[in-house]
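User: Here's a protein and a ligand (sodium ion). What would the complex look like?
Assistant: Let me lay out the input and then the predicted complex.
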Amino acid sequence: MIQNIRKVALLGMGTVGGGVYKIIEKQKNELIHKIGAELEISKVLVRNKGKYANLIAPEKLTDQWSDIIEDDSIEIVVEVMGGIEPAATYIKEALQKGKHVVTANKDLIAVQGHELLELAKTNHCDLLFEAAVAGGIPIIRPLNQCLAGNEITEVMGIINGTTNFILTKMSEEGMDFAEALQLATDLGYAEADPTADIEGHDAGRKLAILASLAFNSPVTFQNVYTEGISKISAKDIRYAHELGCEIKLLGIAKNTEDGIEVKVHPTMIPQSHPLAAVNDSYNAVFIHGDAVGDAMFYGRGAGELPTGSAVVGDILDVARNIQFHCTGRIGSSCYKNIPIKDIKETKSSYYVRMKLEDRAGTLAALAGVFGSNNVSISMLLQKTKDEKTADVVIVTYDVLEKQFMDSIIVISNMSMVKEISSIIRVYH
Ligand SMILES: NC(=O)C1=CN([C@@H]2O[C@H](COP(=O)(O)OP(=O)(O)OC[C@H]3O[C@@H](n4cnc5c(N)ncnc54)[C@H](OP(=O)(O)O)[C@@H]3O)[C@@H](O)[C@H]2O)C=CC1
Ligand SMILES: N[C@@H](CC=O)C(=O)O
Ligand code: NA
């Protein structure tokens, strides 16, 4: 007779919820050996029950939160609905009633994570969110546990599968942006509103979570500079290849002696760098710690089963903690309060593509403006476009954002400059 049955409520049965359901069903006979108990999904909360009638037994399916919060036999609530509300309210009520929570909701954790973790600890509950960052890749547990003995100074990588998929299709197959986005959406990678992916906001939320855990200091989504990929053109991808680079949407967090830098933006990466080969929905996260040195985590950052894998891993962790009476061990690890640097105070190398009047003195005038702002040019490419104008690409050495942008303001007002077509930071 099975003595231990851990009852789970699943909030949401979409891409991720469906993956969780499939994995638990498939692992049914293994779980008793893995966690010393049986796992039962006893309730599934959705908005539109009709949509799931042929997927979930009617007695499990509900559109009423009260069916879950008032059921004391349910010990673990798995939130995979998305959005801030009602997810935040449901999670708080669950924790206050002593129910443990697993979530994939980076929108919520990126703005209320510290408060929710403190609430979980007060109620001796687990609040786990491995799936919230980099999907199926274990990165939260390594930061919270495996690498806790390190002073981590940098976390950077590709942490959005949708945009990585789009850039890969554009770069390798010449696919246009809209077609690649539609494909990513059909594959279940994109957020409910794909603008979050495209404009870098999803990666920004994940980077805020990573930076908070890595540097033990609160970083919220509002602190992160975000720039998306909607302005990246096929021409930029072509010029990047000529420069021996790939264009990727990178999240970069650094703990420097004068504060934390957190920024998400399209980046030109040398094709020799491991991140240049991270394609499709794959993610990769680099960590630098004083003891471990460089470590890289790689895997699928989005999708039904890869994300479901991370959620189920958390559920099994909670089930073990319940079994061995050690829940609520890990609250918020943000015991510092490090200042966040403004993007203007950060340094980068810049690729800038301009359309110029093709006449004598133009390049000298440009070089003069950069020189007067101490912006040193490392490379210049000129592609004649027609008899009057030319495409000119300039790559700078590392320089303060403020110095570079001051130059761009002057250049954009010069008569021989017809257009500043794109600016992309370059990672060395
Ligand atoms: N897709 C991915 O690859 C990844 C997603 N995530 C995160 O996982 C979460 C879920 O994403 P995903 O599965 O793609 O989203 P989907 O849109 O595919 O699914 C959302 C599910 O939640 C249900 N739902 C939404 N709002 C409510 C509500 N107010 N009450 C009850 N049910 C509700 C929906 O029900 P109905 O259909 O009836 O409206 C649907 O079943 C999000 O936080 C997302 O950011 C994290 C990592 C990867
Ligand atoms: N939309 C997200 C889903 C996983 O977090 C992404 O594309 O990475
Ligand atoms: Na993860």
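Summary: The chain has three domains: 5-136+304-323, 149-300, 345-426.
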